[in-house]
Amino acid sequence: MTKYSFVVFHKDAPVFLKQIQKMGVVDIRRSEHPVDATSKRLFEDLSSYKTLLKSLNSAEKEAKKKKLPLIERQIDELKGVEIEEIRDLGNKLAEEKSALEKELSATLRDMAQAEPWGDFNYENIAQIKELGYEPHFYIAERKKLPKDLETEYPVQILNEIGSKLYFVLLSSEGEKIKLKLKETEFPKKSYKELKEKSVQISQDHSACLSKLYSLNALRDSFEKEHNRISSSLDLYMAGKASDKVAEDTLYLFTAFSPSENDENLKNFLDAADGVYYTSRAAKTEDNPPIALRSNWFTRMFAPLTDMYGRPAYNEFDPTPYISIFFLLFFAMCMGDAGYGILLIIIGLLLRKSEGAKSFSPLVVTLGIATTVIGFIFHTFFGIDISMASWVPEQLKRFMVYGKIAGYDAPMVVAIGIGVLHLCVAMVVKAIYSVKINKFKNSLSTIGWTLLIVGGVIVGAVALTGVIDAKLTKIIIITIGILSAIAIFFLGDLKKNPLANFGNGLWETYNTVTGLLGDVLSYIRLYALGLAGGMLGGAFNQLADMAFGGLSIPGVNWLVFIIILVFGHVLNLAMCCLGAFVHPLRLNFLEFFKNSGYQGSGKIFKPLTINNN
Question: Within this chain, do residues 79 and 150 fall inside the same structural domain, yes or no?
Answer without folding.
Answer: no
